[in-house]
């Protein structure tokens, strides 16, 4: 999946697109799962960055990896069900991408080592991985890209509020 349209968008819109896909995939996790609240918090903080930049790159990165070994990356590593582990890995990737964009916006000189591999092609890799999980299809992503393209062509400002993104897609 090549995403030239997405690569030309402002960083908040790119993150919003990634988060819409992450929300779709995360919806598979039961609210009764003991890890659900931490996953939900991670997504909510990412949306906060998109909407208002009231969280920074460090705060977002701490959701993935922290000194207490309680970050969401632990969920992916400890999960025995491969499909659910991949889902958690996708959530980690979405938060990592958001954190990377936040660090870029903050003009931070040095990134955490785990984020150094993130780049312009990371959205494509994320979307391909999302499709591989089977929790979202390539056609759904293409429809979302088409909606985003049509919206951009109208000259309207692309939304950065979670509710507006959800309505758009």
Write the layout of secondary structure elements.
Elements: H1 4-7, H2 11-26, H3 36-52, H4 57-64, H5 73-78, H6 82-105, H7 122-133, H8 138-153, H9 162-168
Helix pairs in contact: 2-3, 2-6, 2-7, 3-6, 4-6, 6-7
Descriptive terms for the model:
mainly alpha, 0% strand, 65% helix, 169 residues
Rounded mean pLDDT is 88
CA-to-CA gap between the ends?
Answer: 19 Å
Helix share of residues? Answer: 55-70%
Total individual domains: 1
List low-confidence stretches.
none
Report on the structure:
With 169 residues, the chain is mainly alpha-helical. It has one domain (4-168). The chain has nine helices and no strands. The protein has helices at 4-7, 11-26, 36-52, 57-64, 73-78, 82-105, 122-133, 138-153, 162-168. Helix 2 (11-26) packs antiparallel against helix 6, helix 2 packs parallel to helix 7 (122-133) and helix 3 (36-52) packs parallel to helix 6. The protein is globular.
